[in-house]
């Protein structure tokens, strides 16, 4: 007679289990976004949610916040709506959406529920959310400063996507940092490009001084453009060795 094998109950993942598998992202993201993401991942695991469910929730919240900023850019510019209302929506909405973006990967890695399809939908949702965010900042800029040069908005939109492209290039089997230098200038640029910190600063500008958004997009264009050039130089140097 064979004795029945009793199933072994595995311990449930803890908050620290989810936080330990975070992918970094910078000092701000590690301190806030990834921690909040771990809390979301833990909650999702308790309710039996899939990583894709968190991905789609991230998309809905991120798009909703950006659409609100776009729709209300005019009323804020003409003074019929207080800027803090829109700024608060952006601050909370963008940060929660980004935390969920962190959470889906944490949930997938800890529970082993990751898949190629899930990775694709994650990237596609990131593209959609960031297009909406760029549009929101551009709409605010033009509403506040109608004389904003078209080329500046175009350069801002184009260079913003550097974040997404370099993120994709740093994942997968051939992952590599685009700029490995530990020099002070490079470290400062990387700190400035911490996505959690960037959307936090952007929301604060919308909250307290939306008229300064034009300078914000100019600064982002300069930083992201500089990082793109540095990445090209780094990759070219590695390719010719």
Polypeptide structure, described:
The protein is mainly alpha-helical and 241 residues long. 75% of the residues lie in helices and 0% in strands. It has 9 helices and no strands. The chain has helices at 15-20, 27-46, 51-77, 83-111, 116-144, 150-169, 184-192, 195-208, 213-239. Helix 2 crosses helix 4 and helix 6 packs across helix 9. The longest helix is centred in the middle third of the chain and has 29 residues, at 83-111. The radius of gyration is 20 Å and the shape is globular. The N and C termini lie far apart (67 Å).
Summarize this entry quickly.
The protein is an all-alpha fold and 241 residues long. The protein contains nine helices and no strands.
Identify the notable features of this structure and list them briefly.
mainly alpha, 241 residues, 9 helices
Main sheet? none
| CA-based gyration radius | 20 Å
Which stretches are low in confidence, meaning pLDDT under 50 for 5 or more residues running?
Answer: none
Structural class by sheet pairing and helices: mainly alpha
Spatial shape: globular
Mean pLDDT: 86
Beta fraction: under 5%
H and E string: HHHHHHHHH
Oligomeric state as shown = single chain
User: Span from first to last CA?
Assistant: 67 Å
Tell me roughly what share of residues is in helical segments. over 70%
Supply the number of helical segments.
Answer: 9
The count of DSSP E runs of length 2 or more, i.e. the number of strands, is 0
